[in-house]
Design goal:
- With 107 residues, the protein is α/β, with parallel strands linked by helices.
- It has one domain: Glutaredoxin (3-Layer(aba) Sandwich).
- A five-stranded mixed β-sheet has the order 1-3-2-4-5, with helices on one face.
- A hairpin with a 2-residue loop joins β4 and β5.
- The radius of gyration is 12 Å and the shape is globular.
Length: 107
């Protein structure tokens, strides 16, 4: 199982905005029940898209600037990036297949 890249405010631009492949960031927190429901799906998708799409997580309690910059008000929120641009977002817990369909659009 692929480890999901853990990102912070400090490395967000380097890892996501400047990434040479598309990326998805899962904004979550340890105390968030729905985040824990989405977590296993995100891990499986990280394995499926390894080398094609960068899949990362950001703990909103540890890093506050980036979620604020993107107007994230509820978690989990998944943001999708291609060529450094935000292309889509999903707010709330959704099934893996739904997330997978959004990831396919990045390829």
């Amino acid at each position: 199982m692929a480890d999901i890249l853990q990102i912070t405010d400090n490395n967000f631009d380097d890892e996501i905005i400047n990434s040479n492949i598309p990326a998805m960031v899962d904004f979550w927190a340890e105390w968030c029940g729905p985040c824990k429901m989405v977590g296993p799906a995100v891990k499986e998708l990280a394995e499926k898209y390894k080398g094609k799409i960068k899949i990362a997580q950001m703990d909103v309690d540890q890093s506050r600037q980036t979620p604020a910059k993107f107007g994230i008000r509820s978690i989990p929120t998944l943001l999708f990036f291609k060529g450094g641009e935000l292309t889509n977002s999903i707010v709330g817990a959704h099934p893996k297949d739904y997330i997978d369909e959004e990831l396919k659009k990045l390829l």
